[in-house]
């Protein structure tokens, strides 16, 4: 009896030890399983588990709307003012009676006997001018008789004749000027106008001087006037 009880006791103790070892093993495995679950890999495996990279947190998307760029307004073109027309100067009317020109012409006969015409232009009215012409005979000693219409003068379209006086000079030392005659000529010329008029003087001498036969002595030129 004692041997049988002892054997049974030994078996019971052995069973309890085995059961305790089994329970300890199960608890140990359960603990390892929880650790593997927490770590995400088995620490006792030869190949280490890959490093788990943390999932990057996406950067917050800005919800601020950009301020739209306002287009630069085109500059308003400045209108170019029309050019101011240059005023045309108005000619100041020349007072009536004012002298607007003078001049003279002389013949060249080749001997000391010539005519000289001196003219003066004077405003007559708003559209015309009076030209006065004095004709002189230049000579040394000279004896001639008076002649009818021996002096002919034209200015523009105006033509006049005049009688010439007799001359009696006895002086071969000096040149003398003898007035042969004067004429008046009315020619058209308005305020602000400028024109040129031809002048022609003719003296019918019809004689001999310094042993040279002379029929006509002439002089003339252009009379330029402006008012």
Average pLDDT works out at 83
User: How far apart, in Å, are the first and last alpha carbons?
Assistant: 180 Å
Spatial order of strands in the largest sheet: 1-2-3-8
- Major sheet: size, sense and barrel closure? 4 strands, antiparallel
Annotation, overall tally of beta strands: 10
Return the string of H and E elements: HEEEEEEEEEE
Beta fraction:
35-45%
Structural class: alpha+beta
Gyration radius over CA: 72 Å
What features would you describe in this structure?
The protein is α+β, with helices and mostly antiparallel strands and 227 residues long. It contains one helix and ten strands; from the N terminus they run αββββββββββ. A hairpin with a 6-residue loop joins β1 and β2. Residues 46-50 have low confidence and may be disordered.
Q: Summary?
A:
With 227 residues, the chain is of the alpha+beta class.
SSE layout and pairing:
Elements: H1 2-39, E1 99-106, E2 113-123, E3 128-139, E4 142-144, E5 147-155, E6 158-164, E7 167-169, E8 176-188, E9 194-209, E10 212-226
Antiparallel strand pairs: 1-2, 2-3, 3-8, 4-7, 5-6, 5-9, 9-10
Keyword list:
rod-shaped, 227 residues, 10 strands, 1 helix, alpha+beta, 4-stranded antiparallel β-sheet
């Amino acid at each position: 009896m004692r041997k049988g009880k002892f054997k049974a006791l030994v078996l019971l103790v052995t069973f309890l030890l085995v059961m305790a070892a089994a329970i300890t093993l199960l608890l140990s495995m359960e603990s390892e399983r929880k650790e593997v679950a927490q770590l995400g890999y088995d620490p006792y495996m030869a190949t280490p588990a890959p490093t788990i990279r943390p999932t990057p947190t996406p950067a917050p998307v800005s919800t601020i709307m950009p301020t739209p760029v306002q287009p630069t307004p085109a500059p308003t073109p400045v209108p170019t003012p029309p050019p101011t027309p240059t005023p045309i100067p108005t000619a100041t009317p020349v007072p009536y009676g004012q002298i607007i020109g003078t001049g003279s012409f002389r013949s060249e006969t080749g001997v000391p006997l010539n005519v000289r015409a001196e003219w003066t232009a004077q405003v007559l009215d708003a559209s015309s001018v009076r030209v006065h012409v004095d004709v002189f005979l230049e000579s040394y000693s000279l004896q001639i008789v008076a002649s009818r219409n021996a002096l002919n003068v034209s200015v523009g379209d105006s033509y006049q004749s005049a009688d010439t006086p007799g001359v009696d000079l006895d002086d071969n030392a000096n040149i003398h000027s003898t007035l042969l005659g004067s004429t008046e000529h009315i020619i058209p010329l308005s305020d602000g106008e400028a024109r040129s008029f031809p002048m022609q003087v003719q003296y019918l001498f019809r004689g001999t001087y310094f042993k040279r036969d002379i029929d006509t002595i002439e002089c003339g030129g252009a009379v330029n006037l402006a008012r």
